[in-house]
Amino acid sequence: MTIRVLLADDQPLVRSGLRVLIDGTPDLDTVGEAATGTEAVALTKDVRPDVVVMDIRMPGMDGIEATRLITADAGAPRVLILTTFDEDDYVYGALRAGASGFAVKDMALDDILSAIRVVAAGDALIAPGVTRRLIADFLDRPAPGPKRPPRLVKGITEREREVLTLVGLGRSNGEIADELVITAATAKSHVARLLSKLSARDRVQLVIIAYETGLVAPPR
């Protein structure tokens, strides 16, 4: 099955380079390009991609607001943010807006392709160590508006609670299976049930829930 990708970046050279990379890969296909957040939102509705590769700094509507609007719709595509390590403040905003993963523009080309596949599948985190750091820091920062009480995890089994904790630690399904002495297929089923029960879009949101509920403590 081919993964349909929409590119949103205000730099034509970046879009061109990514398009050549993606279209030269058998399981990926570029279905559109946008130079602004406004264009990205409109094109998403027109071409219905599986993944939007989204820059953050764009003229007019930025990538954070575009991500918020795109992920608000039912059956919305995944959003992969392309960022740099010195833009953490923007990443926190994108995470709150519903982004499913993060990639760095200077990472290896094969890693960018893998990141797109990971986000499309919704079953793994990109660069778990980096993502855990971002999420831990982001949870320490107050969200705009009234302070909300900690979330409670209700309606899950003790085994699912164990799985959620390991997801929060950045473990893959295979690593979860090894630690809990279960099969990889069983681990995947537990994760799928957690996504459904907790109304989470993907594993990134499960990680956030694990931190917010205290199952995993942010590193100090």
Task: Please tell me about this protein's structure.
The protein has 220 residues and is of the alpha/beta class. Helix content is 50%, strand content 13%. It has 10 helices and 5 strands, in the order βαβαβαβαβαααααα. The chain has helices spanning 12-23, 37-47, 63-71, 88-97, 109-121, 128-140, 158-168, 173-180, 184-197, 203-212, and strands at residues 3-8, 28-34, 51-55, 78-83, 101-104. It has a 5-stranded parallel beta sheet, sandwiched between helices. β3, α3 and β4 (78-83) form a beta-alpha-beta unit.
In short:
With 220 residues, this protein is an alpha/beta fold.
Layout: helices, strands, pairs:
Layout: E1 3-8, H1 12-23, E2 28-34, H2 37-47, E3 51-55, H3 63-71, E4 78-83, H4 88-97, E5 101-104, H5 109-121, H6 128-140, H7 158-168, H8 173-180, H9 184-197, H10 203-212
Helix pairs in contact: 2-3, 3-4, 4-6, 6-10, 7-9, 7-10, 8-9
- β content, as a range? 5-15%
- What class, by secondary structure content? alpha/beta
Query: Count of DSSP helices?
Result: 10
Report the order of strands and helices.
Answer: EHEHEHEHEHHHHHH
| Coarse shape | globular
Biggest β-sheet, characterized?
5 strands, parallel
Uncertain runs with pLDDT below 50, 5 residues or more?
145-150
What proportion of the residues is helical, as a percent range? 40-55%
Numbering strands along the chain, what is their spatial order in the largest sheet?
2-1-3-4-5
Average pLDDT: 84
